Amino acid sequence: MVNSYVCFDLETTGLSPEKDEIIEIGAVKVEEGKVIERFSRFVKPDQPISPMVTALTGISNDMVADAGPTDQTIYDFLYFCGEYPVVGHNLMFDYRFTYRYAKKYYMDFQKEGLDTLKIARKVLPDLPSKSLENLCSHYGIVNSSAHRAYHDALATAKLYQTLKYYFGTSEEKLFTAAPLVWKQKKIQPATKRQKEYLKELAKYHKIDINSDLETLTRSEASRMIDKILFQHGRMERQRGSWPVKK
C-alpha cells in the first residue's frame, strides 16, 4: 500500500498531449500521510492562452509571462518527484503531458502511480459523478481554488488519504502503485501537397502564415488550412490553376 508519494496536477491549454501545452504544474510530496514539500510553477506556452482557458483556470497570459525556462521547470519538477510513485485524479491525462515534455527535453519520466479516479470508480460505484469536485464535496474536502494546479494536487492528496482510510484494508490492491505506460503517437510531418496548398492559399488571399511550413505536423497543417478556408474562403479555380486575386 502506498503511503509516501508525489501527488500532482497540471493546467493545460487543451486536452491533447500531442498538440496542447502545460501552463501550470502543482504538486505535493507526502510521506506517511503528511505533506512535507510543495511545488508550484507556471509554464509559458508557445501559443497565447485562450480566453476560454483563462475563464476555466483563472490563468492569464500576464501570469505566465515571467515564467522561467520550460526545460528548467520540467527538470525541477522531475527532480521533485524523485523515486516516489505519483498520484493524480485521472492520472494518465497529467502523466501523458509530463512524459511528452520530459521526452522533448531528453529527460525520463517512467513512473509507477495510482489514480484516485480509478479507485473511486471501484469503491463508489453508486456516486453519480466521480469528478474531483464531486468527490471532494462527498467527503467534505475543501478545495479553495479548483482548477489551479497546486490546489487540485493538494485536494487529490487529501482525497487519496480519505479513500485509503475507508477502503485501504478491504481493497488493498487498489492502493498499490502500478507502472504507468503510454506510447506517444508518432508525429507525422505535413505532406508536400499540404505545404504547397498553404503557400497557394497565402498568396491568393494575400496573408502571412507566420509559421515555418517545414516544421508543421500533418494535423497542424490540416487545422491551418481549415482556419484559412473558414476565415477567407476558397480559391476560385480558373483553367486548371489557382490564380492570384487582384
TrEMBL record:
<dbReference type="InterPro" id="IPR013520">
    <property type="entry name" value="Ribonucl_H"/>
</dbReference>
<dbReference type="GO" id="GO:0003887">
    <property type="term" value="F:DNA-directed DNA polymerase activity"/>
</dbReference>
<dbReference type="Pfam" id="PF00929">
    <property type="entry name" value="RNase_T"/>
</dbReference>
<dbReference type="GO" id="GO:0008408">
    <property type="term" value="F:3'-5' exonuclease activity"/>
</dbReference>
<keyword id="KW-0378">Hydrolase</keyword>
<dbReference type="GO" id="GO:0005829">
    <property type="term" value="C:cytosol"/>
</dbReference>
<dbReference type="InterPro" id="IPR006054">
    <property type="entry name" value="DnaQ"/>
</dbReference>
<keyword id="KW-0269">Exonuclease</keyword>
<dbReference type="GO" id="GO:0003677">
    <property type="term" value="F:DNA binding"/>
</dbReference>
<dbReference type="InterPro" id="IPR036397">
    <property type="entry name" value="RNaseH_sf"/>
</dbReference>
<keyword id="KW-0540">Nuclease</keyword>
<dbReference type="GO" id="GO:0045004">
    <property type="term" value="P:DNA replication proofreading"/>
</dbReference>
<dbReference type="InterPro" id="IPR012337">
    <property type="entry name" value="RNaseH-like_sf"/>
</dbReference>
<feature type="domain" description="Exonuclease">
    <location>
        <begin position="4"/>
        <end position="169"/>
    </location>
</feature>
<protein>
    <submittedName>
        <fullName>DNA polymerase-3 subunit alpha (Gram-positive type)</fullName>
    </submittedName>
</protein>
